[in-house]
Amino acid sequence: MFTGIVEELGTVEAVEDQGDAIRLTIRAATVLADAGLGDSIAVNGCCLTVAERTGETWTADVMQETLDKTSLYGVRPGDRVNLERAVTADKRLGGHIVQGHVDGVGQVVRRTPSEHWEVVEVSLPAEMSRYLVDKGSITVDGVSLTVVEAGAESFTVSLIPETLARTTLGFRSPGDRVNLETDVIAKHVEKLLGAYLPQHPQQSTPQNQENNS
C-alpha cells in the first residue's frame, strides 16, 4: 500500500525486452535507502517488486498485463518516473490509500498556468468516471491529488509548486499518457451496495424467446 506522496524522481536506466515482459532498471537514491529484494516500489503509480538492486539502481520485472494496462508500455531509458516506497505502519498518511493497482490510462488534455499553481485537465476511461467526485481523491502517475471538477470524460486537478517541481506532473504535456487509480473505498462501497440495489431483468430478444419456446 502507498500514500501517493512521491519520494523522488528516478531515471530509467535500462529496458530489457523479453517478448511478453520487460526488465526495467531504474536509477534512484531515496527509495533505495532501505529497499531489499521483494520490496514494493511504486513507479508512476504501478506497484513493482524489487528483483535486483545495486548501490544506485534497482530492477523489476514488468509483465504483459501491466504493459497492456499502464503507461509503462513504451518507457525508454532516460525517462523520469515517480517513485514511492510502500507505506509503513508508523508513517503519516499524507495522501490517501493507494494500492498501486492502475485502473486505467488517461491523457493530459490541457494545462492552465496561474501565478502560484497550475490547473491540469486529464481525460479518463468512461467506466472510471463514476468513482470521481468533486473534492475526492484520485491518483495520477502515483501522485495523490484532489479532484477539482469531475466530469464524465475528464477531470481537473490543481497542482501546487511542490508537486510541479518534485513529480513528473510538472512536465507532462497535452497528449501524454498518465496512469490513473481511483479511490479503492469508492469501489468497495459500490460493490457492497450492489447487493441492496434493485436488479433490472435482462430483456428477452427474439432469438432468446425462440430458444426458450
Detailed description of the structure:
- 14% of the residues lie in helices and 38% in strands.
- With 213 residues, the protein is mainly β.
- It is globular and about 50 Å long.
How are the SSEs ordered, and which strands pair?
Blueprint: E1 8-17, E2 21-27, E3 40-43, E4 46-49, E5 52-53, E6 57-63, H1 64-69, E7 80-85, E8 104-113, E9 118-123, E10 137-140, E11 143-150, E12 154-159, H2 161-166, E13 177-182, H3 184-194, H4 206-212
Antiparallel strand pairs: 1-2, 1-7, 2-6, 3-4, 3-7, 5-6, 8-9, 8-13, 9-12, 10-11, 10-13, 11-12
- Uncertain runs are 204-213
Shape: globular
Instruction: Describe the sheet with the most strands.
Output: 7 strands, antiparallel
Strand content: 35-45%
